[in-house]
Amino acid sequence: MREIFIAKVGRRGAIYLPRKVQRKLGIGEGDRVIMRIEDGRIILQFLPDPLTLALKVEKWSETTVEEFEKESEEEQYELQNP
């Protein structure tokens, strides 16, 4: 389904997205965006925050804090003792 929204260009070229667009796409202040120009159009692709993305994806592994600490200590040891 295609929806059309009108935004306004503000001071210094800032474009303000309507709240409805922000909510639909899960966009918030400080989010990063890639901008491409194609055939005289601006294409925006929002980059999700890594933590937010990690919470949304299906989990494929499981670990405990103890296992994580042990693996971290082993890797640190290997880096310090080649």
Task: Tell me what you see in this structure.
This protein is α+β, with helices and mostly antiparallel strands and 82 residues long. The chain has one domain: Pemi-like Protein 1, Chain: D, CATH 2.10.260. 37% of the residues lie in helices and 22% in strands. The protein has helices at residues 19-25, 50-56, 65-80; strands spanning 8-9, 15-16, 32-38, 41-47. The protein has a two-stranded antiparallel ribbon. A two-stranded antiparallel sheet has the order 3-4. The N and C termini lie far apart (57 Å). The mean pLDDT is 87.
Question: Could you write a compact summary of the structure shown?
Answer:
This protein has helices at 19-25, 50-56, 65-80, and strands at residues 8-9, 15-16, 32-38, 41-47.
Spell out the blueprint of helices and strands:
Elements: E1 8-9, E2 15-16, H1 19-25, E3 32-38, E4 41-47, H2 50-56, H3 65-80
Antiparallel strand pairs: 1-2, 3-4
* Strand-pairing-aware structural class: alpha+beta
Task: Specify the helix fraction band.
Answer: 25-40%
Number of DSSP strand runs: 4
Main sheet attributes: strand count, strand direction, barrel closure = 2 strands, antiparallel
CATH topology: Pemi-like Protein 1, Chain: D
CATH class: Mainly Beta
The name of the CATH architecture is Ribbon
Query: End-to-end span in angstroms?
Result: 57 Å
Q: Which strand order does the major sheet show?
A: 1-2
Total helical elements = 3
Poorly predicted residue ranges: none
* Radius of gyration of CA atoms, rounded to a whole number: 21 Å
Average pLDDT score = 87
Order of helices and strands: EEHEEHH
Domain module tally: 1
- What characteristic shape results from the CA principal axes? elongated
Strand content: 15-25%
